[in-house]
Write a structure and sequence with these properties.
By secondary structure, the chain is an alpha+beta fold. The chain has helices at 33-50, 76-94, 97-101, 122-131; strands at 7-9, 12-14, 16-23, 53-60, 63-70, 113-116, 138-142.
């Protein structure tokens, strides 16, 4: 990793990477190819609006792994809240059939997993970990670290 992957702001230079996992409510298998494409597209828009860089997104049928680069003025819980709420609204809008499977009206469980990714070499380890989650793993997005 080189300095061009850091985020430069007026008074700081950061490289903040988070591994975040969202299980689907009731662990239902709703993440079809079409839903994964919608999720990827929504995350691209979230990244632009909120200065988040989705370095990697990996999906299994009932949960999603994100490797997200953030900025220091947004906490992990804020990132999670924004990603969960915006992706759920967008997915339900484009795929209303999912609401029938998830009768409670929520796409994601109330909880999540978050972990910071260590300095430099651990990005590859997390990418590899995400890829090897299951035999049904499908990479739905692969990006590069960047600055905003």
């Amino acid at each position: 990793m080189t300095d061009d992957k850091h985020v430069f702001k007026r008074h700081n230079k950061t490289l903040l990477l988070y591994h975040i996992v969202f299980p689907v409510k009731y662990r239902r298998f709703v993440l079809t190819k079409e839903v994964e494409i919608t999720l990827r597209d929504i995350c691209s828009e979230i990244g632009i609006c909120y200065e988040m860089n989705f370095v990697e997104i990996g999906a299994d049928e009932n949960h999603v792994h994100f490797l997200v680069q953030g900025i220091p003025n947004m906490s992990v819980s804020e990132m999670v809240m924004k990603i969960k709420s915006i992706t759920a609204k967008g997915i339900f809008k484009k795929h209303p059939e999912i609401k029938k499977i998830l009768w409670g009206g929520s796409l994601w469980t109330s909880g999540y997993y978050a972990n910071t990714v260590g300095q430099y070499g651990n990005e590859a380890m997390i990418r590899s970990y995400i890829e090897k989650q299951s035999s049904n793993y499908v990479r739905i997005h692969e990006g590069q670290l960047k600055f905003f």
